[in-house]
Automatic annotation (TrEMBL):
A GO MF label: GTP binding
Family classification: Belongs to the SRP receptor beta subunit family.
Keyword set includes Transmembrane helix: yes
Superkingdom field: Eukaryota
Topology within the bilayer: Single-pass membrane protein
Classification via InterPro entries: P-loop_NTPase, SRP_receptor_beta_su
UniProt name for this protein: Signal recognition particle receptor subunit beta
Locations listed in the record: Endoplasmic reticulum membrane
Amino acid sequence: RARDVAEFLYDVALESGKKIPILIACNKQDHGLAKSSQVIRTSLEKEIGMINKTRAAALTTTDGSSFRHTLTDTGANFSWEDLPKPVEFVECCAVDGASVGLEGIRSWIKI
């Protein structure tokens, strides 16, 4: 699952403008076995790094252009701080009667 989410986020980050912020809402925090936002952040960082390296190493196109679309070209492991846009992780729970972390989402939307 992390790979699928990472590929989606990779495309969103690549195709969106440089100044468009990204919010990653880590839902279901009311469950005892839910992963924390830091664990999710680290897991996605690793997966996106692997995707970035794979796309950077891909063969050039058959039309002779060598332009490759990658998020970063630092050559180092991917880090969220490498992106030219802010990325924020918020832990939340959106179950009836529980509103854990929703204030973080509301304040982010007002940015």
